[in-house]
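INTERNAL AUDIT FORM
Audit reference: QA-55
Scope: verify that the stored structure record matches its stored sequence.
Auditor: D.O.
Record contents follow.
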Amino acid sequence: MNRGRRRRNRDVVSKIVMYVILIPGAIAMITPLLWMISTSLAPDSVIVSYRLIPSRITFANYVKAWEFPRVFDEAVSMGTFFKNSLIVTILITAPALIIDSLAGYILARRRIPGVNLLFYLALATLMIPFYVIAIPLFLIVRRLGWLDTYQGLIVPFLASGFGVFMFKQFFQTIPQDLEDAARVDGCSALRIYASIMLPLAKPVIATMAIFKAMWSWNMFFWPLLIINDIRVKTLPVALTMFRGLNVTQWGMLCAGMTIATLPILILYLSMQNMFEKGIVMGALKG
């Protein structure tokens, strides 16, 4: 009886300590987001305001932010940049999930010569900073004539060592008997991958979809390097135009940042449960 009571008391104390640590951290992380939204809803000003609740709410900043790029090109609005980011994000995320999952499946379930070496080479790509390969990659893209094009933004990032690692770790947890039974029923390797492995890997697919989409949507340095045409600029790069040399309209800038944040926030909230499950299944097992 006393032992059970002591255990409950320890659990209560541990939860209190956990919340004491997590709540200040959560407040510190959410405050900049609240400030951004508050500033976007306040009357526009060149003076930075630190209010979390605007004195007067207006949506004029969103209208001005959406139309501001027409100053540079009458045919361009923020919708143009939004469309470009959406195209790049979808055309990186969807093919990358197929490529990474196929590679992870082969490395986890097929006994081929050098399979471990291939896996370690994939992991080695995680240890090389992108800035080390940026210039060689730029020279290749320029030689191919892909500057100021979608393919220059998309093709170099259709596979990742992290994605291969996540899928391989997950596929290794699936019992071999399941695959053997499917093979006895006459399923080919591709059919096993498409009909058995991928449906079981939904949590990992959701996890990687969020990671890939978030990274692709927020990609800044590479588009800044290879895109000069305003009609092909992505949203993160285009937001730099909202900041003037001498004056910054903070309300309009924060409105643009809020618009850029919403798609990824909605994606994460819609797939949150599968994302958390995928992190556990794909990364901790193996």
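Auditor finding: record pair retrieved intact. The CA atoms of residues 244 and 253 lie 10 Å apart.
Action required: none
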